[in-house]
Amino acid sequence: MNPGLEPATLPADAVEVGRILDAWGIQGGFRVQPYSASPEALFSCREWFLQPPERGARAVFEGTVRLAVRQARAHGEGLVASAREVPDRTAAEGLRGARIFIARSAFPPLPEGEYYWVDLIGLAVVNREGVALGQVSDLMTTGPQQVLVVHETPAGADKPVERLIPFVAAYVDTVDVAARQIVVDWQPDY
Fold it and tell me: What is the pTM of this model?
């Protein structure tokens, strides 16, 4: 194990937000691939939790470890970061492929009407008439807008029905994260 990495417990509300690609520079910096096009949580949170890659590259640690991030900044398509526990390039190379988690409670607050994708996954989607359309299983970007990927498995069906609903005001009436529901202007046969 890298001598600067101490074992930690993954927070109960941890969200996987990216992975470490490789070392960057000679002073312990590392390149990060964020899973979001807007990685605000990676920039603002100073406590990251790492777990080894699920497959591929071998990390120099096991289980979960904590990093005290000194700096994270945009760099090309991703970002570069440095941490107190990663003093040099060799230590940074040992993190290659590590999965990065951040406690959801540490995410910066968003303005009214904006949501983190992780908060929308699993919400029930109903239309204005109260007809259940399924649950949000994913979101995707299609250029100018986000799209809710909603799955529903009708009774007696072998596989789920997938609906792609643009996440724009013209179709989304309300989002109630606390009630775990999104109301949309959408019909089951669209």
Answer: 0.80
